[in-house]
């Protein structure tokens, strides 16, 4: 029987998930469908909003399908079969056709859907399963209960800013890139190339993101049935068409806009204005270099700036040797890995981490948790590698280098095998043993 959602924090639980983003919600759903007691806490005042991820890939849809969510999400988004890359004269560089994956997945597509919609659907499903995400609950301390403190020895005591303490057998750190859980567990978080901490730096490429409404009719260089990335001489512009939110003015189109800035560009505003986005679109939008008029930006619904950097946790699990299964700490999502949004991997890795961790925790053996940590760390490394390659390709400078990059991309796309391995890699369906090279 589905339990009634809790109103207050309980004194103890089997699993406490810290963080109610996509990773934490996926973990809780995966545990709940297997009958494990779980609570989800989040320090924010409510569900996340704003410009973040905009695509769900096939591997995530496969995992979400096991939670009964794939068809609901497909209904709420735009299922696309292609992802196009063009140069700044709007000539094709690469076209990835996901329909070629129909022999390996029931979801040979790239689903265009905003992260806040994905989170809302997951929160609703979790409520159906009797779990309410508890907001305004920030974990400020976590410690292992010592042997002399009674029967809870080895379990983890989490203290909240609101004063309560909850004792959990297992704590899942789904608390984002600055994860407190990861820090308390003493797990290192470093750039996989340099092995150093990911320190914010002005040398790192900066991106501007915005959810925008533009007025129609759209010029032919704009597409509404697939994501379009323009690799120009000033970096890249990505346009993801999304389903318009309710109450949008008639005749407008809704896009997620992402633009990389060059080191010579002035510092972007922390919240981009309509005029700022219009200027970027006019200068770097698809076909702008050909003198094509860009559509008018009517409204910026949300926007932010973002410095890309990569980091991975040294281990995705911490299993204390002394107390059997009690006191295990596991990491999912951005708490375990971060990288640029290029390739749309962040939310997807997070969802897959969560579903896989839920299954491993339901089995409950050290072997299952170690396998989770090993497999998902390898998946995160592949995601980081893909996003870094795409950022390198996007930010090539100088006419010679641009010519070589463009020729290389066009040549790659002539080979079905390359196209397929790229589609597999982007979808998260890659066989870990495959030899993937550009
Ligand atoms: C500006 C921006 C743009 C992005 N663009 C893209 C994109 O285009 N494509 C893409 O794939 N990904 C993108 N991402 C990344 C994507 O949003 C993340 O990968 C994804 O949100 C990770 O999910 P998560 O659940 O691990 O973490 P989050 O979504 O960060 O959720 C963590 C949650 O933990 C809570 N929390 C933190 N500390 C505590 C605590 N001590 N106690 C309780 N709760 C706590 C927070 O309130 C938050 O709700 C973007 C991210 C940002 C910030």
From TrEMBL:
Keywords: FAD, Flavoprotein, Oxidoreductase. Pfam families: FAD_binding_3 (PF01494). Residues 13-384 form the FAD-binding domain. GO terms for molecular function: FAD binding; oxidoreductase activity, acting on paired donors, with incorporation or reduction of molecular oxygen, NAD(P)H as one donor, and incorporation of one atom of oxygen. Its cofactor is FAD. This is FAD/NAD(P)-binding domain-containing protein. It comes from Exidia glandulosa HHB12029. The lineage of its organism: Eukaryota, Fungi, Dikarya, Basidiomycota, Agaricomycotina.
């Amino acid at each position: 029987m589905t339990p009634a959602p809790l109103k207050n924090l309980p004194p103890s639980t089997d699993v406490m998930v810290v963080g109610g983003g996509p990773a934490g919600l996926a973990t809780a759903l995966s545990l709940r469908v297997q009958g494990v007691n779980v609570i989800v806490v989040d320090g924010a005042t409510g569900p996340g909003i704003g410009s973040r991820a905009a695509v769900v890939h096939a591997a995530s849809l496969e995992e979400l399908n096991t939670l009964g969510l794939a068809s609901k999400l497909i209904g709420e988004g735009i299922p696309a079969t292609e992802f196009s890359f063009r140069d700044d004269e709007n000539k094709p560089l690469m076209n990835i056709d996901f329909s070629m994956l129909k022999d390996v997945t029931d979801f040979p597509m790239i689903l265009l859907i905003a992260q806040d919609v994905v989170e809302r659907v997951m929160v609703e499903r979790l409520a159906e399963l009797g779990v309410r995400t508890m907001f305004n609950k920030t974990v400020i301390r976590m410690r292992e209960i010592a042997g002399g403190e009674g029967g809870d020895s080895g379990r983890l005591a989490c203290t909240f800013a609101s004063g309560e303490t909850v004792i959990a057998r297992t704590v899942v750190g789904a608390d984002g890139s600055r994860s407190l859980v990861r820090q308390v567990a003493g797990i290192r978080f470093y750039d996989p190339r340099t092995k150093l901490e990911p320190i914010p730096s002005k040398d790192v490429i900066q991106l501007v993101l915005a959810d925008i409404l533009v007025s129609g009719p759209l010029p032919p260089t704009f597409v509404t049935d697939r994501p379009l990335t323009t690799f120009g001489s000033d970096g890249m512009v990505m346009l993801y068409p999304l389903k318009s939110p309710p109450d949008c003015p008639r005749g407008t189109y809704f896009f997620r806009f992402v633009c990389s800035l060059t080191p010579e560009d002035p510092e972007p505003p922390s919240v981009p204005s309509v005029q700022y986005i219009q200027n970027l679109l006019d200068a770097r939008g698809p076909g702008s270099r050909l003198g094509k008029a860009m559509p008018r930006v009517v409204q910026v619904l949300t926007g932010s700036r973002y410095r890309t950097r990569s980091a991975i946790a040294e281990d995705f699990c911490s299993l204390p040797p002394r107390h059997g299964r009690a006191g295990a700490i596991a990491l999912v999502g951005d708490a375990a890995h971060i990288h640029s949004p290029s390739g749309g991997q962040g939310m997807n890795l997070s969802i897959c981490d969560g579903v896989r961790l839920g299954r491993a925790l339901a089995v409950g053996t050290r072997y299952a948790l170690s396998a989770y940590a090993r497999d998902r760390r390898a998946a995160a490394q592949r995601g980081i590698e893909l996003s870094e390659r795409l950022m390198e390709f996007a930010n090539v400078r100088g006419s010679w280098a641009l010519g070589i990059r463009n020729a290389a991309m066009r040549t790659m796309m002539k080979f079905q095998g390359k196209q397929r391995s790229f589609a597999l890699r982007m979808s998260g369906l890659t066989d870990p043993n495959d030899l993937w090279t550009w």
